[in-house]
Amino acid sequence: MKQDPHPTEPHPGGAAAVGDPLLTDDALTPEELAARWEADAPPSAGGTANTVSSLVAAAIGAVGIVLSLGLGLGAPAQPEPGMWPFIVSLVVLVLAVAQVFTGRGGGDGEKFSRFSLFPLFGFGTLLGLAFLMPVIGFEIPSLLLSLVWMKFLGGETWRSAVLYSLLVVAAFYGIFVLGLGTSIPHLF
After folding, report:
1. pLDDT tens string 67-84
2. Pick the residue with more confidence: 113 or 169?
3. Residues 167, 173: Cα–Cα separation, whole Å
């Protein structure tokens, strides 16, 4: 077994012992890696949780279909605003229904924890962006969304979250307002 040439803690004789936790992951065989990952994995959610999460995804797909029909689909040659949301929502619905039937065995899905609320929080903040954008433009809501996602969902430091958020909004402004000249609501 290959040993880490630079262990993080000193060992007598200057080398890590075989079976030592200081060995790097590339020093382990695929079977040993799989065993380590299995031991570190969160507990499985089970069939009920998989079915419930699939039904939630199906409901989101169904709501998306209804809302996109309200926007109008048009024709493939001349699509209206609801065409792509309809297609995406239909794919979500079909995959979620398929998961209801195939995911009941439990599989590798993780048990719900406080981290399971992160996607819901992200979706809620995305809705906030959608409601604020027509009112105050895209710059401020996009900056806030990016900042919240990077700091609270991504765990970035305040400095990097602020810097990256400013860069993301500047890039979007450059691409969509200056470069493409889209009619997206904006302040400047």
Report:
1. 999 988 888 888 888 899
2. 169
3. 10
CA 165, CA 143: separation in Å to the nearest integer? 6
Distance of CA 168 to the CA centre of its chain: 17
Per domain, the residue ranges of the chain are 1-41, 44-110, 113-188
The per-residue pLDDT for range 16-53, each reduced to its tens digit, is 444 545 555 567 788 888 888 777 776 777 777 788 88
What distance in Å separates the CA atoms of residue 170 and residue 46, rounded to the nearest whole number?
Answer: 44
- Whether the predicted pLDDT of 102 surpasses 90: no
Q: CA–CA separation, 16 vs 24, rounded Å?
A: 11
Alpha-carbon distance of 2 to 80, in angstroms, equals 60
- From CA 175, how far away is CA 169, in angstroms rounded? 10
Task: Give the span between the Cα atoms of 148 and 169, in whole angstroms.
Answer: 13
Is residue 156 classed as helix, strand or coil in its secondary structure? Answer: coil
pTM above 0.70, yes or no: no
The residue among 53, 66, 54 whose CA lies nearest residue 116 is 53
Distance of CA 181 to the CA centre of its chain: 29
**How far, in Å, CA of 60 to CA of 83, rounded?**
17
